[in-house]
Each structure stands twice: as C-alpha cells, then as structure tokens.
Design a protein that fits this description.
- It is a single chain.
- The protein has one domain.
- By secondary structure, the protein is mainly alpha-helical.
- 55% of the residues lie in helices and 0% in strands.
C-alpha cells in the first residue's frame, strides 16, 4: 500500500475508474476499503492542519470573485446545464454549482490549471447516478461509476469528442476516492473531488477566502444538502465507496473535523 501524501493516493490509480467500476460494480475489496478509509483520514487531517495554519496567519487564500469563474458560453456547457436542469432537484443542482465553484477556488489556490469547460461539465454531471431515473440505481452499482458512464454516453450522443467525454467520465467516477491528486487523475478530477467533498465534509474550506465562499453561498445556498446524502436518501450497494465511507464516518473509524461551512461566518 502506498503512503498517502499530498501527491499520491492510498488507492491504486485504477480504483474508481469507469473501467474498474464496470467490472466490479464499484464494490471494493477488503484491502481497498481500508485504503479508502485512509484517504478519508488524510483529507480530514489535511483540513485540520490547514485550519490551524489559517488561525496562525500562515494560510491566507486570496479573494477571487466568482464572476471571474463563470463557465464559458460553449455548446458543451449549455447542453450539460440544460440536461441536468431537467433531472436534478434544486438541492442537488445547487450542490453541483457549489462543487464547481469550490473546486475551482481550491484548484487555483493550489496552483492547478484546469479547463473551465470540462471542469464545469464534470461538476454539473457528477451526480447523474443519484437521479430517480438513474439506471442502474445506487443499490445495484456505485453511483459515481454509473454517473461517469451516463455522462460519457450523454456527451458522445451530443457529438462531443471521445477524449473530452472520457475526461468528464473519469472525473465523475473517481471523485468518491476523496483524495484524487491532479497529477494522477487530471485537473478536472481534482476539481470535482475537492469541490464535492468541501461541500459535504468542509475539507478544503481553509483554502478559499471567506469573501469568495460567501459569494458562492449567497447564490447557491446549502439548505437541505444533507437530505440528498443521508443514508436513507438512497439504498447504496454494500461495499461501494459511499456505503463504506458513510459507515466509517458514522461508526467513528474516521476522526472528522467540524464542518467549516456550518459555522460562523457562514451561518
């Protein structure tokens, strides 16, 4: 097993990919479950360190206006946005917008360049596996893997190139690994992962300026977010990354940190 560092994940690079998911339904082996929990422990320990550095004045992320991060007006952006507006409930829609903005802010803080069109498309489509019409449902297959396949097929069906469809599909499928280094999985996968887990767990919040975060939340509130990701919202297949990580957190196997976005000055 690799040691988890800021530049490598405990999980084998193939775990979480579309190809891996299609052959396993997204069910982790026992050793992979341990490694996934190691990734969870890493992101929480990293946020704990970031918060302390911020308190000491050693971490001061610069303000970036979200107006500077507006996705480009391209066919892919328009098609993706129109598609999810038909499928997502408002709570899930706002989560995907926050995923894009939080992921973009954290990536820029970390000096990671990304394609805004592909980053936005990946963020918007990353929860296709949680829609009522998803086939298969989360009880039959990992929802992130299914969402990646769904997104790839959607983009190919709209005439976009295979290379871009694969980048989006991988970004979506791998985001439940929680620690997804850009050098291993690409900048767009990093963006989606960091944005989504920041919204759900609060990890990475210290790498964004409070002013930037407030701008995001003023447009896309976090009201009712946890109703989407609760254990009862969907029945998840045993052994998949969501099921394993949810159980690990609720059973105290992972030491979490207070969710920064549930605290002042954001509430």
């Amino acid at each position: 097993m690799k040691i988890v560092s800021s530049s490598s994940s405990a999980l084998d690079i193939s775990v979480g990919s579309v190809e891996w998911g299609e052959s396993t339904k997204g069910v982790l082996r026992e050793s992979e479950q341990v490694q996934l929990i190691d990734n969870l422990k890493f992101i929480f320990s990293q946020e704990k360190l970031d918060a302390e550095r911020h308190r000491l004045g050693l971490l001061n992320p610069k303000y970036i206006s979200i107006d500077d991060l507006v996705p480009p007006d391209t066919k892919m952006v328009r098609e993706s946005l129109a598609y999810v507006q038909e499928l997502y409930k408002p709570t899930l829609m706002r989560h995907c917008w926050r995923t894009y903005y939080f992921g973009s802010l954290i990536a820029l803080h970390d000096g990671i360049a990304f394609d805004r069109e592909l980053g936005f498309t990946s963020a918007m489509l990353h929860d296709l596996g949680l829609t009522p019409t998803a086939n298969p449902q989360p009880c039959e297959c990992c929802f992130a893997v299914n969402g990646g396949v769904h997104a790839r097929d959607f983009l190919l069906g709209k005439g976009f190139c295979r290379e871009h469809a694969d980048i989006v599909a991988h970004a979506i499928a791998v985001h439940l690994n929680y620690h997804v280094p850009a050098e291993e999985h690409g900048a767009e996968a990093f963006l989606v992962t960091r944005g989504a887990i920041c919204d759900v767990f609060g990890t990475g919040a210290s790498r964004m300026s409070q002013r930037s975060v407030k701008e995001v939340l003023s447009k896309y509130s976090r009201d009712e977010l946890y109703s989407v990701f609760s254990a009862t919202a969907f029945e998840h297949l045993v052994g998949t990354r969501f099921e394993v990580s949810f159980k690990a957190v609720t059973n105290g196997l992972v030491e979490t940190v207070p969710h920064a976005l549930d605290l002042a000055p954001y509430v």
